[in-house]
Every structure is written in structure tokens, then in C-alpha cells.
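Field reference: sequence -> structure
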Amino acid sequence: MSLQFVDDSSCKSAIADLRNDSTPTDWVLLSFESPKSQKIRLVGSGSGGVAELVQHLQDDMVGFALVRKIDKIDDSETVKFAFINFIGEKVGILQKGKISVTIGSVKDFLGSFQCDFLITSKNEISDEIVLNKIQDISGTGSKVLDENGAKTGASKSTTSPTNSFRRSTYGSVTSPTSSNKDSIKLGDEQTIREALKEFRSDGNDIDWVLFGYEGGNSNTIILLGKGNGGVDELISNLHDNLVGYGLVRIVEKIDNSDTIKFAYINWIGEDIPRMLRARLGTHTGFVNQLVTPYHVDIKCTVKSEISKEIVEETVAKASGKASMVLSGDVQSHGGRMTSSYSSSSASTQGSNTTGKTFAGAGSKFTTPSAVPKSSGSTLGFDDEQQVRDAIKDVRSDSTDTNWCLIGYKNDTTLTVIAKGNGGVDELVGHLNSKIVAYGLVREVERFDLSDTIKFAFIDFVGEDINRMFRAKLGTHSGTVKQLFHPYHVDLHVSSPSELSSEIVTKTITQNSGTSSRVKA
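Structure field:
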């Protein structure tokens, strides 16, 4: 959905200020105008970090914050951004319902970030918690230098004084054309826009375009090539020392009609340096805005991970044309997971993770958060086979099981709570304020004359869960999402009253993008 603002200019100015290296601003907070309004307003911004930000959070408000941190890698400082979604404990059910249909657009508006948090209390977030998660994702946790230049395992927040300029240095990678080393721009915008227009036109035979960086080390995106030879011709232009952003056009036949589908190929060659890979995370939002709309995305680093067959299979799964039964927990091609989503905010770059935002032609819908390649947690299972079989039953066309619920036997052990065939409403009967549970629900979405199977992931954290355990759940997120992946939408709830069959169906419909198909 498109965002409405009380004053969009003030919001945009605050975000631009946050991303400007020459200002001390390191946080911005947005919220709804009122509990009954969907208009977004600027709550505030400042230079005092998370400690200052939390002073503006209230128990009856929903907050969308972007925080800027400096991650120190040896002698280099890397600017990273974190997104914080705050849902106060006194926020009403109706207002909570607005979040799932708004948060995707809010994230797009705020721009790229490296990690995100969902919290319900001020005690769940701090400068240290944010920096720790950033370093866990970037892998710099054990490379932080103390004031004497010695390496230490402890995380230290690096904050520039308010009277000095912040640095945005990525090792030896710099942009000589801009004073803001984070900035990204189009080299020849007219040429790029014309190539995109040709690619999307039904009256043109151009079926692929490829963009990359001018000179490899710059922040300037240029057109690398275009053609009418399809996926195979695009692949011939991919190299180990190249970062490429490609679009390819596929004709999918559904019943008696032909439907045009666009696939986004995010290629990061094996020879790309680690520091350059890290910098790419700050470009994600800009690139996604450039190539949107598209129906699926595929991230790959070697040519064995991309082919015409892989693209067609991924498109078929996204549209529901492929077999509705998923073999195993994750579909893969040579170790690379594929998905019907695109990432508007990647948690990691250059890793084999799937993106998460479905960009339908003409409009954009946001679904689950990015699945980390590794969570670093020690989460285990009471009976792993039983847990996986419960999830497999939900995915199978040969059983009537349409939901399962997995919870904790103790703080680090997952176990099956229940499963059944009574849908979401039956699942809700097993939820209470004292448990944390993860559910998978199978729904049938009807479009025209065809039925499509869709899966919803439920992340339930009861209102009586103590703060210490809530904080620990963040370290389990990667393992849990990999266990339940793939799914089409996710819902984060803290009360059984926030979940129903109607809510799940509405969320799936809003995120499916089936009403935005591009026809030939």
C-alpha cells in the first residue's frame, strides 16, 4: 500500500539527514498520527543513539525507527543501519492489525538497512543490543578494536561526537565522485531508463537487461548489456569478478492464457572482495527501486546456481502453477535456496539467502523478514524428526493437516505442541500468554478459476513472556525461519485475539500480487 503522511517533507528531510555523513543525526522515529489513523508522522530525530530514541517510545504507540551505527573493522569504520519496529504493550488490536499492511511500505520509505528488531518494551533494545546484532551479521564481532588498538571480543559502540563529522569508509573501497561515500547513483540515467522501458514493452523483443558498477569499485550503476536471447544470453555476461543486477522476461502459460513474468537476478561473483560485499548492503533499497516491479528474485554467486530451468521453476512456484507439494523443508539448487520474494532490506549480502519482498507488477507487497544464513544460536530439538514431520504434513497434498504449532520444551529446545486440520481457528486454541510458539498454516487462495496453496508463518510471543527470554529469541530467529521456510507471509502476534482465519486470509490476499499480473 502507498503511505500517507501528515507531512512527508519533514519525514524525508529527517531520513536524508540521518544518512548524511556530515550531520550527527543517528536516529529517526516515525509513528501513526493517532490510533485510528494510518497517516505517518515524524515523532523525532536526534544524535544520542538508541538511548535517546527510547525516551520517545510510549506503551500505547507503534514506532518505526531507523538507527545509524558505526561498525569498526580493524582500522576501517563501516556505517550500518538498523530498523526497529516498536509495538507498545498497550497498543490496541485494531492498530496492531494495521502494522502488517503498512510495515513493508514504511521499510521501503526508510531505505536500506542491515538488520531489524521487533520489540514491545524499551528494555528490549539498547545501543549495545543493536551493535551486537550488526556485528553478528557482518562477522565483525571478534574484530572490534579497543582504544589501544587491541582486538577484543566485547562489542563497543562507536559513536562520533556531535561536533565532528562521521566517517563512512569501506576499507579501500571509495567513491571518488561523491563526498558521501555511501551514496549510489545512475551513470547514464536516460540510457538505463530506456533499456528498462524496452525490456518491459510488449512491442519489443528485448527480454533481458543487466546493470552493474562502473569500474567495479565505484557507486555508479551503468547498463552492462541487454538482448533477446533470454536467460542463457544474460548468464553469458556474468563473471566471477562482477556484481550484476539483471532482469529477465519469462512467458508463463496459465490455462489458456499467456502471462508475462519478470525475474530479478542478483549476481555477486565469487571473486568479489569481502569489503565490497559488505558495502552492497547499503545499496539494496536503491537497486530494488530501480528494478521493481518483478515477480521473483534469485540470488546467485556461481553459474551453476542459475539457468533457464531454475528461473522457470521459481516463477512457477511463485504463481502456484508448480506442484503445491514442497519436497522437504527448503527447495534448493546446488545449495542455493530460491523464493518467490525479493529483498527490500537484506540482512546479509553475498550469502545464499532468499529475499523477502514480493514485487508484483504495478505494486509492491512486503512479506517475511530475510532468512539469515546462520543464526549463531544453539537452538535444538526434543525430537527433530517429529518436528520436521509435522511441518511436512502441513505441506503435503496427501494429508488433511493444515496447521502445526512448534514451541519450547525449555529455553533452547523446540518441540511439537500440536497439529490438526481445523485451520487457524483451531491453532489459536493452543495459544496462551505464557508461551512462545511458531506455527505454519496452509490456506487455499482462489484466483479466477484456479486454487493456489499458500503458507503463513505465525510467530507468537505471549504477553507474559519475561524480558530476558524475549531478548534471547532474537538469536533463535535464523534457525526457526530456516526450519519453516519457505512461506508466503508471516504474522507476529502476542495475543490469541490478534489471530484468526480472516486475518490470515486477508494478509495472504494483500501479499499475493495475483491481481497485478502483467498480461502479454
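Note: The longest strand covers residues 62-73.
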